[in-house]
Amino acid sequence: MTPDRKVRILIAKPGLDGHDRGAKIIARGFRDAGFEVIYTGLHQTPEQIVVAAIQEDVDAIGLSVLSGAHDYVFPEIIELLKQGDAEDIVVFGGGIIPEEDIPALTRVGVKTIFTPGTPIDETVKWVRDNIKPRK
Predict the structure, then answer these.
(1) What is the pLDDT of residue 117?
(2) Among candidates 135, 110, 123, which has minimal Cα distance to 7?
């Protein structure tokens, strides 16, 4: 993080998944680590997530998916960011995502996936090492 601007992270819960405890915990962990965090709340469409990310001028989007829709939602968000000329926004994710699905997600542009039980300190370190303010 630079002294003039904190890293801004949008935490989003796409789709019909109604379980947001993990998203709230990670949002709080990032906030406590000094990042600026925007949480979109439940039941967001890919379009709503990308619009919010662009409007909020975030550096990264963290997606939390427990519903199994990751193989649709993550690539759709990557594509919408490209269409919105915002492909420099880093996308990462977490939740219940089978190990065998992770390579396909990284091939479309998702930078990393955090599986259940990943310590918050590990996610914070990854953000510090991999995400810088865009401006």
Answers:
(1) 92
(2) 135
91 touches 111 (CB < 8 A): yes
The 3-class SS string of the chain reads CECCECCEEEEECECCCCCCHHHHHHHHHHHHCCCEEEECCCCECHHHHHHHHHHCCCCEEEEEECCCCHHHHHHHHHHHHHHCCCCCCEEEEEECCCHHHHHHHHHCCCCCEECCCCCHHHHHHHHHHHCCCCC
For the entire predicted model, the pTM comes to 0.94
Q: Which of 91, 28, 37 is nearest to 60 (CA)?
A: 91
Q: What value does the mean pLDDT take over residues 92-104? A: 96
Lowest mean pLDDT across 2-16, 29-43, 92-106, 121-135: 2-16
CA-based angle 127:86:63, to the nearest 5?
45
Nearest to 10 by CA among 73, 71, 93: 93
